[in-house]
Target: UDP-2,3-diacetamido-2,3-dideoxy-D-glucuronate 2-epimerase
Amino acid sequence: MTRIVCVAGARPNYMKIKPVLDALEARGAEVVLVHTGQHYDPAMNEVFFRDLGLRPADHFLGVGSGSHAIQTGKVMAAFEPLVAELAPDVVTVVGDVNSTVACALVTAKAGPLLAHVEAGLRSRDWGMPEEVNRVTTDRISDFLLAPSPDAVDNLRTEGYREDQIHLVGNVMIDTLLANLDRARSSGALERYGLTPGSYGLVTLHRPANVDDPAVLTDLLKALGEVAAHCPLVLPVHPRAAGRLAAIGVPGGVRTVAPAGYLDFIALQSAARIVLTDSGGVQEETTALGVPCVTLRENTERPITVSQGTNVLAGRDPVRIVSTALSLLADPPPARRPDLWDGRAGERIADVLLAAGPAHPRPTSRLSQR
Ligand code: UD1
Ligand code: UDP
Model:
């Protein structure tokens, strides 16, 4: 039997790993779920296990917060002996957080094959810690599981072998589609005291947006102006909580605790507009057909702009307000990219299990050029 370790550790990992884990187990693989503990507050962690029906992790590394080096190093130090003990055939990592790259680095030197779910996304912004994590993880992965054709193009341009690259679709959307009806009928809007189409939803957590008080002050000014046209709800990420409280949010912007998954999907699907710097939220708004203003200069998910409802507005308050007002007046048409169809996890499981146990590691990861 093929033994596969699946790694999760931070909020956006749980919804990505769940469909992969389910599809692997449905096909008879032995799956070991490892939780690094990068996120640990109940609102950033337990609620997702509950909402998604994700079984408890088999191993919890409990690393917690720290600088990049400390957090990455702690995951590596805790994961290395576990990989030696478990001796899996494959380790699967998702996304671009520190837990992803840490477990990837350990795996690449330990022997099991390494599979990266969400391979090939590139913002080309090396100021983002996630870009370092994405490129590093792809470079040492055996299976590159790409969500969209642009990601495949990036991998080909970087010289990866064709047999490593698999266009599988978007696991985030698997989980969204599997839970949408449940979210919509959960009574979340009533609990928040909201009616459909009467509010906008905001998330902010990128270091470039929330760590510098001057940048955050400008963003809040823009949100205040948008809120004059459409009241805004902002579930606060713990990274931003202190600075938001210190600066103070403008009138019309209501802050709430980080939302659970079902609540957040309910809030997104009934919003008039979403303003965000989240990667996953850009994808979910595209799948839901909800207008999205991305508060960043770039995106590693360009398909949400070319095919979806996403518009990049950067950090300039004037541009943010004018973008939001034009999307409110003239919402873009909804179009869901190919393979964002709820079956990416199944395609991933098929790829991983076709390789079989003890698949030999290739001697070269890049094609010879
Ligand atoms: C991390 C990921 C980011 C992802 C985001 C999703 C990296 C480098 N960054 O960013 O890519 O988009 O998660 O939400 O991996 N904190 C708490 N409670 C928690 C977790 C964090 O209070 O449960 C606070 C701590 O003060 C911590 C800070 O948030 O220092 C940042 O947490 P960390 O996991 O380092 O990065 P995120 O900003 O959450
Ligand atoms: N999300 C949530 N509650 C919130 C904010 C986001 O459940 O208060 C969900 C969102 O629907 C998506 C995922 O968390 O599925 C995105 O995670 P996040 O924005 O933290 O990280 P990123 O995608 O930017 O890495």
Q: What stands out?
A: The longest helix spans residues 68-86. The longest strand covers residues 3-8. The chain has two domains: 3-170+340-354, 178-329. The mean pLDDT is 96.
